């Protein structure tokens, strides 16, 4: 019970006692007069004592109340100081949506004295538009639901500004909402910072995309002279009889191959950086990719005096055939490039639910201290010096990034002086039979199964120097060559002679129909399928998807003569097998 209430009760009891005492004194009768006097005096004394005690309690209660008021004032002062230091508007609104408290920030925002606007509505403080917006938030909070929102407030006093507002219902002891505490923060600077960051991000993304678009657009034009150089150097080598001249031509070819390797690596890494390389995982026989690589690298290995062994597999796997081919091409290219003598092997083994595709070489091996950074960009080991070809050290970095993109595991092991082995573990799509994958029959070699001598080939190429180089090279292989620069020229050449045994067409033929269109026109003209190989210097994603979907064999420029010959043989072998 509160002290003041106790004191009041004691005063009331004292009054009652005093009345009883007076009544006793006024009673008649002499016999008990003395006894009555004693009783009355006792009652009066008790009442006096109770009155004194009540007064003391009242005084103490008053003092405590004053102390409580001072403490409350101090607490309120601290709360106001805290509210004034917050970086935003702090207010308290009652159930009638009227301000009962406003911190000093209202003066900074609206140039008003907060004390003059207590009891006012949001519309009177911030203006009709902003006030109505704020009233809606307060009304929601008064239902007992906390509010956190962000909007552009069209203030009447001052410019519109983006604000973030937090509103929390204030409840009494019974849980009833009796008001709303509000904090409103100006987020203009935050928005400006976010816009600046977004602009910087967009600029960086656009710069990366622009670089990728430039490389993709320029790749065709940049590859053409390199392609012609490779073909001319090969033709020149066969015509020169002097040993020193032949060595000079081989040096030219080696330089061209190095340029080709570096250029392809730059294009591959730029596409990965730009995020335009997206895997298209399908189920396909591993042999579909491995046969193409065998046809491409057997000739290159044998040209360097290396034995090339191929252990195929017909196991179906889950991967992107183009990206898997790119991974293995980089590994095989390194194996051929860095092996001075001995052999290179491409083979497969089963390992649980995965097919391990392995590339072995008998090269100098990799020193142990180089193994930890083997897959880093621009990492070139000492083995680089054993070959005349140069590179940027991007091949294994591309292998690692493509493997991560596909979810494949790549591993390497090596002993110095005893070669190296690189393994790509690819998920198998279905159980295979009990025969080990490395025991599968090798089958015929598509590159060597077709004799090109005497075969008629139609070359469709819009670059005159490349067309001339191709015609010379194919003629050296014993083929009869017809030439055309575009679709109309191809139709004219076809009408003058017998249908070709092969159409070798560039994909980009200026502003007219592309190489795929030319092949299809020729097939319609002769009324049957025609063996074809489409080559391209454009490596943009759209072009590659179009070529893949066409069903027509295709290859990326520049091609070494041995690789071109293998691709031509494979295309003709495929057409004969269909």
What does this 3D model show about the protein?
- The chain has helices spanning 3-26, 33-85, 105-110, 122-126, 128-142, 188-239, 243-274, 286-303, 321-338, 395-406, 464-476, 487-496, 515-526, 541-550, 561-577, and strands spanning 89-94, 99-102, 147-153, 161-171, 177-186, 282-285, 307-310, 316-319, 343-351, 354-361, 409-414, 420-427, 456-460, 480-484, 502-506, 532-536, 554-556.
- With 578 residues, the chain is of the alpha/beta class.
- It has four domains: 3-80; 87-186, Beta-Lactamase, CATH 3.30.450.20; 280-439, Histidine kinase-like ATPase, C-terminal domain (Heat Shock Protein 90), CATH 3.30.565.10; 456-577, 3-Layer(aba) Sandwich (Rossmann fold).
- It has a five-stranded antiparallel β-sheet, with helices on both faces. Strands 7-9-10-12-11 form a five-stranded mixed β-sheet, covered by helices on one side. It has a five-stranded parallel β-sheet with strand order 14-13-15-16-17, with helices on both faces.
- Strand 1 (89-94) and strand 2 (99-102) form a beta hairpin.
- Helix 1 packs antiparallel against helix 2 and helix 8 (286-303) packs parallel to helix 9.
- The longest helix has 53 residues, at 33-85.
- The chain is elongated.
- The termini are far apart.
- The model is unreliable at 381-392 and 432-444 (pLDDT under 50).
Can you give keywords for this protein?
17 strands; five-stranded antiparallel sheet; five-stranded mixed sheet; alpha/beta; 51% helix; 578 residues; 15 helices; Heat Shock Protein 90
